[in-house]
Amino acid sequence: MKKIDKLILSTFLGPFILTFLVVVFILLTQHMLKYFDDIIGKDLGWDVVGSLLFYFAIFMSPVALPLGVLLSSLITFGNLGEHHEITAIKSLGISLSRSLSPIFGFVLALTLIAFYINNNLVPKAALEAYSLLYDIKQKKPALDLKEGAFISSIPDISIKVNKKFPDGKTLKGVIIYDHRGKSGNKEVTIADSGKMSTILNEQYLKLELFDGYNYNEGSSAEKDMSGADPTKETLSKTRFTKTQIVFDLSSFGMMRTDKKWFEGNRIMRNVSELRLDMDSVKQQIYEQQLGVYTVQQNLFRFHQKKDTITLPPALQKIKNRRDSIAKNQSKVTAPQQSTVVSVKSGIIKEDTLLWRKIKLVSDSIFNAAPIAHEYTNALNQVRMIKSQLINFNSQIALQDQEYRVFEIQWHKIFSNSFACIAMFLIGAPLGAIIKKGGLGVPVLVSIFFFIVFYLLSMIGDKWARADIIPVPIGVWAGDVILLLIGLILLKQAKADARLFDADSYNVMWDKAKTWLFKRNHIKPKTR
Q1: 66 and 416 in contact (C-beta within 8 Å)?
Q2: CB-based contacts of 318, cutoff 8 Å, min separation 6
Q3: What is the CB neighbour count within 10 angstroms for residue 209?
Q4: Cα gap 206→243, rounded to integer Å
Q5: pTM score of the predicted model
Q6: Longest CA span, the chain
Q7: Ranked by mean pLDDT, which of 114-123, 211-220, 323-332 comes out on top?
């Protein structure tokens, strides 16, 4: 590698690492704000919060990589252009395309790394992050005793304190209702003061109460043993100077859900798994379509019974495979039909007369005028056919939409990786044209092109889901359009175009005014 290549590549790597981390942090913060209410107040450990942030950071990397490439390439070539280093490179006979080659090779390698991340790491990170987030949402908030209010976070227990001291442990005026007996408010504990603490690795809550009373209404068994009147309630009152009550806090722990219930989501599948999902959904669509073609044989009993409909090749293959499987699995052979010929002439005559009678009866049935219940039966048959066809169409539409969802995700894994190349071809030539380094102009330009890319991707995704445009066009539209813009900017950068120089536009405006004035035979005003 030449020194000039090392110089350009080292100039690019520093801003790229910095901008990538900054973009990941910004996207992670914006994403986590949506779940702030679900996380706060749950008394989560730093290990849980750190794991959630780590998994979501990996999940955000497919979006952060292209934006980091765009911003760092703008900064790199903007600095080179601002310090006239691009001019010095060109004076050595090195073209702009040659000066872009070391970073372009790095971006190609980065594209392969991005594909590996999108295909392998992102699905696993999404599975871990969203399964963990679901368990966090199901977790109860941390026990927080508020002054003057009953707290029922502990199952079957209601606690109220009149005052909670700043140390978070000392309490004043404690009232506890114990509903674990499932018989109402029959056990009440009142204390003047108390102390609260957790024991055994915060699995149990211990309340140490001072100077209070415990009130307990007797149960029916106690009344029988005491010989009291069963129509009257018994009440026991116990005074204590100091007592301890322990409550189980296992319901506040976070229970992990089996990840297999989340694995079917599209964002948690890689390319091969998405292809299998698409094939299975396509097979279900073919089964439904084959049912539409075979509905004729099941419901049209008399008319159009012998009509034949040519099946599409895909459906014909499925039908042949289904018939072959049914034929191989069937072990019961059909009985051979044997024709018995009566030798005696008398039996032959009787058979002939019988068939004549049957023919006359059948002719009379088909030639007779239809009656009311036959119209009703025919109408019910038509309604049943219509209902089945509507059901077939609705099922095909739902499965087709599901197929498009998996297909969109399949293409996104490739398009998000290819976006690194498209963003580089925009950032590097644009930085050479603007010739402004730092974080001012490059950040504004990067935000503009990222918004364009995001809008094109979002609109294409939406139209592809709605089946307005094909899925490949909807997913790849943003990459292709930005790639074309990048190639145009590269051509302009090679020609040293002054697209962002105000003086060039002033010269063009003066030439236009001169031409207009000459055409109208008016002498233009000089500046």
Answers
A1: yes
A2: 283, 286, 287, 290
A3: 23
A4: 10
A5: 0.67
A6: 129
A7: 114-123
Residues facing 247 on adjacent strands = 205
Confidence of residue 298 (pLDDT cuts 50, 70, 90): low
pLDDT digits (tens, 9 = 90+) for 499-525: 655 556 566 777 777 777 776 665 555
| Kind and range of the H or E run holding 514 | helix 502-519
Over the Cα atoms of the chain, what is R_g?
Answer: 40
Residue 213 near residue 240, CB atoms below 8 Å: yes
Two structure tokens written together for 474: 């909807």
**Amino acid code (one letter) for 168:** G
Between CA 29 and CA 40, with CA 34 as vertex, the angle to 5 degrees is 85
Give the span between the Cα atoms of 33 and 471, in whole angstroms.
31
Q: What is the pLDDT of residue 138?
A: 66
Crossing angle for the helix pair 46-82 and 372-434, to the nearest 10 degrees: 50
For residue 463, give Cα distances in angstroms to 123, 281, 408. 24, 20, 11
Going through 89-129 in order, the beta strands assigned E by DSSP cover: none
CB atoms closer than 10 angstroms to residue 320: 11
Strand partners, 235: 217
DSSP H or E segment with residue 87: helix 85-91
Token pair recorded at residue 349: 């005559």
Model confidence at 369: pLDDT above 50: yes
Pick the closest to residue 135 from 204, 52, 28 (CA basis). 52
- pLDDT tens readout for residues 467-488: 888 999 999 998 999 999 888 8
Say if strands 170-178 and 187-199 run parallel, antiparallel, or are unpaired.
antiparallel
C-alpha span between 115 and 412 (Å, rounded): 10
* H helix intervals, 149-257: 220-226
The full DSSP string for 328-393 is HH--PPPPPP------SHHHHHHHHHHHHHHHHHHHHHHHSPP-HHHHHHHHHHHHHHHHHHHHHH
**Cα–Cα distances in Å, from 57 out to 48, 62, 350, 517?**
14, 10, 91, 61
